[in-house]
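Cross-check.
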Amino acid sequence: MNKVVKDADEAIRGITDNMTLLFGGFGLCGIPENCIKALAETSIKGLTCISNNAGIDGFGLGVLLRKHQMRKMMASYVGENKEF
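Predicted model, tokenized:
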């Protein structure tokens, strides 16, 4: 199986409304920021997002929160995201 994709749009292909997604990284380091941006450009909604960090205003998972694409966020730290 080839798990290498050419871009973020190909990486998010198959993601639909109401899915649960796990996001890697620690804090804002190593997060899949290009995939998050690609998701934000879609009309996908109702996502349950699991990560150690909820992003910040305008970056990381905070982008999906601002666009109301998240239904639920499960994180160990949300302190830097004023919107939460």
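The radius of gyration is 12 Å. The beta strands are 20-22, 47-50, 70-74. Passed to J.P. for a second look.
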